[in-house]
Amino acid sequence: MDLVARGFQRLIRRSLQRGLRGVWIRGQPPVGPAIYAANHHGWWDGYLAGFWLWSAGLQPGLLMRAEQLQRFPLFRRLGAIGSGELRGALELLRSRPLIIFPEGRILPAGPLGALAPGATWLAKQASVPLIPLAIRTALRGHEFPEAYLRLGEPCSGRQLPSQLAHLVSQTDLLAQVSDPERPLPGFSLLLRGRSSSSERLGAANRALEILLERGA
Fold this sequence. Notes:
This protein is of the alpha/beta class.
């Protein structure tokens, strides 16, 4: 990887740390080429999926809409490919994973939208696993949003809509029934971001109590 790509990865990591309370994950990406088919319900999704795979020692590509790639050509240095560049995507899949958002655009947070067939077609042509990935960024019980990524099991193209919809809905349901001031159960912290004001004040109060106890 060249210096520009490495610098861009550091920039993405810093953006996640500054904009989110943290990133939590559930599951482990397999080694080798695969297609990660994710829902696309938030601005952070591409950064989050890419960062997780980088953290796992992988160098994924990302299928982007052609007009978006024209606006941000630097993403090609990280492996981004235009949605119409099928030969390029197949070539990349010979050695690297590929992130695809089959909904085709950002949709409001909620149920999964209709999926385009591209991810299924590419997985079949490249003979690589097709893996559903649920991503949800939500403002819960703290000052800054929290991001959760949940990896499913490899599935067929026919199974992908139901499997991905299930992962998204289960993550949303878990958020509805869990303590909003605590991370969702079953997820592991991948990246710590910004503490909320209440957390910083709480830490300061605890430190003051310790000092007062020592001085007593």
